[in-house]
Design goal:
With 274 residues, this protein is of the alpha/beta class. The chain has 9 helices and 10 strands. The strands form 2 sheets. Strands 1-2-3-4-5-6-8-10 form an 8-stranded mixed β-sheet, with helices on one face. A two-stranded antiparallel ribbon has the order 7-9. Helix 5 links the parallel strand 4 and strand 5. Helix 3 packs parallel to helix 4 and helix 8 packs across helix 9. The longest helix has 17 residues, at 78-94. It is globular, with a radius of gyration of 19 Å.
C-alpha cells in the first residue's frame, strides 16, 4: 500500500471490496488481561476453517477437510487484507478508540491462512503505525507451528497463546478431535520453540469431561513441561457444537488454578471464553 494514500480525506467513502462481509476486523473486545483488544480474522465468515473439531466450539463443527483448506477458503488476498486493515486501523485511531492489544484469531485456526507469514508482517507494520503500544498475540492450537516459516513469523508477535485443554492423547481426541496427526508430546516439543508462550485452557463437563482429578493432574504436568508465561482458564458460555455439554462452575476453575499454582508455581487467571 502506498504511504502517500490520503486516509484522512477519503476513508469514509472507501469502495466496498466484499471483505467487510468476511469479518476481517472485529471488536475491540475484552480478552485475557485486556479490556479492548482488536481481533483479526484471516479466515472469512464461511464455514469454520480449523484443524480441530472441538465439540465445545461455539462456531459449530469443522466441515472443511484439511486437504481443501488452501483451495476452498474464502481468503482475502494480501493487497485487500492490507487495504482493509489500514482502513479500519485508521478509523479507530482517528476516533481515538482505545485499543490495548491486537489478537489474530477469528473463524477457526489462524495459522491455516495460506499467507500467514506475509499477513503478520502487514499487521505488525500497521500496528506500529497506529497502535504502537498495543501488544500483538496469535491465538492458536499450536499444531502448525512446526513449520519453520510459520513459527518464525509467529515469534515476531509479542506472544503466542496455545490452546491446551488436556494432558493425554486419549483426551485430546475427545476434547479437541484433531483432524490431522497431533499428540501431546508434539505440542510440548513445539511449545519449546515459542519465544513468549501463554496457554488458554477450556474445561467442560457432560458427554465430554476434562475435569476429572486424574485429567487435571496430567494437564498440570504438561503445563509444567511447557513453561508458559501466563495461563488462562475458561469454560463454555455459548451453545456448543455438540449437545450434552455443560459449563464448569466457577469453583471448579478456581480449584484447578489453585492446584496448578501449588504444584508448579504458575498462577492461572479465570477468564471468559476463547
Amino acid at each position: 500500500m502506498s504511504e502517500a494514500y490520503d486516509f484522512k480525506n477519503e476513508y469514509i467513502n472507501f469502495p466496498s471490496t466484499g471483505v467487510e462481509k468476511m469479518g476481517l476486523c472485529y471488536g475491540p473486545e475484552p480478552i485475557f488481561d485486556f479490556n479492548a483488544s482488536l481481533g483479526i480474522n484471516l479466515l472469512g465468515q464461511g464455514n469454520k476453517i480449523c484443524s480441530f473439531d472441538c465439540p465445545y466450539c461455539d462456531l459449530g463443527r469443522t466441515k472443511m477437510r484439511l486437504n481443501r483448506v488452501k483451495k476452498d477458503g474464502p481468503y482475502a488476498d494480501l493487497s485487500t487484507l492490507e487495504f482493509e486493515l489500514e482502513k479500519r486501523f485508521f478509523e479507530l485511531s482517528d476516533k481515538k478508540v482505545q485499543i490495548d492489544a491486537i489478537h489474530i484469531s477469528g473463524n477457526g485456526e489462524p495459522s491455516l491462512y495460506p499467507h500467514l507469514v506475509e499477513a503478520i508482517d502487514i499487521i505488525l507494520r500497521l500496528k506500529e503505525k497506529y497502535f504502537s503500544q498495543a501488544p500483538s498475540m496469535l491465538l492458536t492450537n499450536g499444531t502448525h507451528l512446526d513449520q519453520r516459516k510459520i513459527l518464525e513469523a509467529a515469534n515476531k508477535l509479542d506472544s503466542i497463546v496455545f490452546k491446551l485443554d488436556i494432558g493425554n492423547d486419549t483426551l485430546l481426541k475427545q476434547v479437541n478431535a484433531p483432524l490431522g496427526r497431533s499428540t501431546v508430546s508434539h505440542l510440548i516439543s513445539i511449545s519449546h520453540a515459542v519465544r513468549n508462550l501463554s496457554l488458554q485452557s477450556l474445561f467442560v463437563q457432560g458427554v465430554v469431561d476434562n475435569t476429572k482429578a486424574s485429567d487435571i493432574e496430567e494437564w498440570i504436568e504438561v503445563v509444567g513441561l511447557m513453561k508458559p508465561r501466563r495461563v488462562f482458564l475458561s469454560t463454555i458460555t455459548q451453545a456448543p457444537a455438540t449437545s450434552g455439554l455443560k459449563a464448569c462452575d466457577e469453583d471448579t476453575l478456581y480449584t484447578i488454578a489453585s492446584k496448578l499454582e501449588r504444584k508448579t508455581g504458575l498462577k492461572a487467571k479465570v477468564v471468559g471464553p476463547r
